[in-house]
Amino acid sequence: MQNVIERVLVTREEIEKRCDELGKEISEAYKQDKEAPLLVALLKGSVPFLSELIKHIDLDIQFDFMNVSSYQGTQSVGDVKILKDLDISIKDRRILLVEDIVDTGRTLKKVTQLLMNKGAADVKVVALLDKPERRVVDIEADYIGFTIPDEFVVGFGLDYNEHYRCFPYVGVLKKEVYK
Ligand SMILES: O=P(O)(O)OC[C@H]1O[C@H](OP(=O)(O)OP(=O)(O)O)[C@H](O)[C@@H]1O
Ligand code: HPA
Ligand SMILES: [Mg+2]
């Protein structure tokens, strides 16, 4: 275990197994549609999760990326800025938003509203992690990988100031790293 990690919360094997389950659920939910959903992944944290999840979705899905930023270090700054918009038109498309974590919920709320305003037929959310104790806005993901306690986590896409994203598991960051 890397020495900045206090303890591992979710192992690589648990993530793979859960992505398989989520992929099957999602495939089942959208299988009657004429057109498969467009997965919209939020850069950068959701990239490892998107990569694992799409292996398990048995539909002709497409994916695209948006980049919004809301965190500096371990602090949510409240204001969600759009740094990169979508390339593909989402008018009348069913969207599945792919997130690494729902924490305060501000990012999800803002992006969901934005996609609806652009004319999406429907927006659902799949999140690898959910930290419900930290929520400040009323929003929930439709598909959740793991519910975790109120601790700052890194790995499998999640960073602390752009570090530790590439750990293959999700772990609690030692407080001495950021205090
Ligand atoms: O529920 P919230 O409190 O809004 O927090 C969740 C969001 O914050 C992080 O993004 P960040 O801005 O750190 O971008 P990143 O994915 O590039 O790390 C994370 O990846 C989520 O998108
Ligand atoms: O616990 C977290 N870790 C990394 N990034 C985050 N963005 C929101 N919560 C977290
Ligand atoms: Mg981040």
UniProtKB/TrEMBL annotation:
EC number: 2.4.2.8
Catalytic activity as recorded in UniProt: GMP + diphosphate = guanine + 5-phospho-alpha-D-ribose 1-diphosphate; IMP + diphosphate = hypoxanthine + 5-phospho-alpha-D-ribose 1-diphosphate
UniProtKB keywords: Coiled coil, Cytoplasm, Glycosyltransferase, Magnesium, Metal-binding, Nucleotide-binding, Purine salvage, Transferase
GO biological process, one term: guanine salvage
Cellular compartment(s): Cytoplasm
Coiled-coil region(s): 5-32
GO cellular component: cytosol
Domain of life: Bacteria
InterPro entries per UniProt: HGPRT, Hxn_phspho_trans, PRTase-like, PRTase_dom
UniProt pathway: Purine metabolism; IMP biosynthesis via salvage pathway; IMP from hypoxanthine: step 1/1; Purine metabolism; GMP biosynthesis via salvage pathway; GMP from guanine: step 1/1
GO MF term set: guanine phosphoribosyltransferase activity; hypoxanthine phosphoribosyltransferase activity; magnesium ion binding; nucleotide binding
Cofactor(s) listed: Mg(2+)
Ranges for domain Phosphoribosyltransferase: 13-160
Pfam families, alphabetized: Pribosyltran
Family: Belongs to the purine/pyrimidine phosphoribosyltransferase family.
NCBIfam families assigned: HGPRTase (TIGR01203)
Role this protein plays: Purine salvage pathway enzyme that catalyzes the transfer of the ribosyl-5-phosphate group from 5-phospho-alpha-D-ribose 1-diphosphate (PRPP) to the N9 position of the 6-oxopurines hypoxanthine and guanine to form the corresponding ribonucleotides IMP (inosine 5'-monophosphate) and GMP (guanosine 5'-monophosphate), with the release of PPi.
Protein name, per record: Hypoxanthine phosphoribosyltransferase
Gene: hpt
